[in-house]
């Protein structure tokens, strides 16, 4: 079954709207990732969907003002954590911090969705340049990671989200996204002996979802804008059934 992750980002603006939307998209195979402040209330109403967090502190509970520790997420029945979203990277998160967050996530027994993807500037130089960029992003997070992992088994997803496709209405082509997914999977097995599922993200909607999700290389989707409209989101989820 393909995984469809609803990344609400900093939406919606009220608690009541968040609860209404969560109930409307509470389906199996869906991970709802609301802002932190709505996690507890949504956790109480979900019957089928899983719950995710948009970020996590690399630190355990303690004197870290403004941070949310992995064990606090687990207490709210959160199962997934998005790590290294390009909007977090833009806000200043470094590869080093992203590696620490990934380690903290996996060591706590949470499932991680690590985001990678190139900018428009990189892609201008061609698809090979994009692959090289993604390879370097993965290397900076995964080299040396195994020494920090305390757990033997973990669930890891890599979301390929070209930055120029996020929230722009322009997607990558399904062919390139599938090729990038294969490339990432091969790299992860060959270099790190990790088998991962690769999700596609970036302007996915009801009309284009099928062309991506019907590809065997693509294990699911990370959906932003379209996950805030239940009728649109429903059509995306239906393409996987
Ligand atoms: P989008 O966002 O679907 O609105 O392009 C995707 C994401 O940032 O995860």
From TrEMBL:
Keywords: Cytoplasm, Gluconeogenesis, Glycolysis, Isomerase. One of its GO terms (biological process) is glyceraldehyde-3-phosphate biosynthetic process. It catalyses: D-glyceraldehyde 3-phosphate = dihydroxyacetone phosphate. GO terms for molecular function: triose-phosphate isomerase activity. Its EC number is 5.3.1.1. This is Triosephosphate isomerase. Pathway: Carbohydrate biosynthesis; gluconeogenesis; Carbohydrate degradation; glycolysis; D-glyceraldehyde 3-phosphate from glycerone phosphate: step 1/1. It comes from Candidatus Colwellbacteria bacterium RIFCSPLOWO2_01_FULL_48_10. Homodimer. The keyword Metal-binding does not apply. Belongs to the triosephosphate isomerase family. PROSITE patterns: TIM_1 (PS00171), TIM_2 (PS51440).
């Amino acid at each position: 079954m393909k995984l469809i992750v609803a990344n609400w980002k900093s939406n919606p603006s009220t608690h009541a709207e968040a609860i209404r939307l969560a109930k409307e998209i509470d389906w199996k195979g869906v991970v709802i990732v609301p802002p932190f402040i709505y996690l507890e209330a949504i956790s109480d109403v979900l019957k089928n969907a899983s719950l995710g967090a948009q970020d996590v502190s690399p630190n355990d509970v303690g004197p870290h003002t403004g941070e949310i520790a992995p064990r606090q997420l687990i207490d709210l029945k959160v199962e997934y954590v998005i790590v290294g979203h390009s909007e977090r990277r833009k806000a200043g998160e470094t590869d080093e911090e992203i590696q620490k967050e990934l380690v903290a996530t996996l060591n706590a027994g949470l499932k991680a969705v690590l985001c990678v993807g190139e900018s428009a500037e990189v892609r201008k130089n061609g698809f090979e340049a994009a692959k090289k960029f993604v390879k370097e992003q993965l290397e900076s997070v995964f080299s040396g990671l195994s020494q920090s992992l305390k757990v033997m088994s973990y669930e890891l997803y890599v979301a390929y989200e070209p930055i120029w496709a996020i929230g722009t209405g322009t997607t990558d082509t399904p062919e390139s996204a599938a090729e990038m997914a294969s490339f990432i999977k091969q790299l992860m097995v060959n270099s790190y002996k990790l088998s991962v599922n690769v999700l596609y993200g970036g302007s996915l909607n009801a009309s284009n979802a099928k062309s991506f999700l019907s590809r065997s290389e693509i294990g699911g989707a990370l959906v932003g804008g379209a996950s805030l409209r239940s009728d649109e989101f429903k059509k995306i989820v239906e393409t996987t059934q």
